[in-house]
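Collaborator request, handled under Task 6.
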Amino acid sequence: MDYLEERRFVRSFIRETKRERLLYELTTPKKRSSGVSRFCHQADDFIDASRIRMKGSDLDRQPEFQRFVLEHNEICYVLSADFWLDEHLPLQEAVEQAAMCSDAVLILGSTFAVVFTEAMKGGRDKYLLCEE
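Structure tokens returned to the collaborator:
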């Protein structure tokens, strides 16, 4: 695997101080699942705040996010710590699958990413990250 999507995700959306370690974990097969999970447990520490377009535990139900999904319903690369790995799905279907899964999920589009953290007591954080 060439891990092109993982590299673009890290370069575009992750704080510079966190990039090297996360990229190592996402591109090392034995560490990949735990890397996705660790990232999603500490998403606020990893994500470049300037890239957050929307955030909230109810993100997938917000009308603005639903419009974004309809307007950007491209094939996305989906990573999860469990349930389904390395899948390519249309954005709308990927968001629906991620909402049903309780594990950490990253949905990587061409200029955006959607992050679902692992479901925990008190809810689940969700982020829409955009390059611009």
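The cover message to the collaborator said: "The longest strand covers residues 75-80. The CA atoms of residues 5 and 54 lie 21 Å apart. Please let us know whether this matches your experimental observations."
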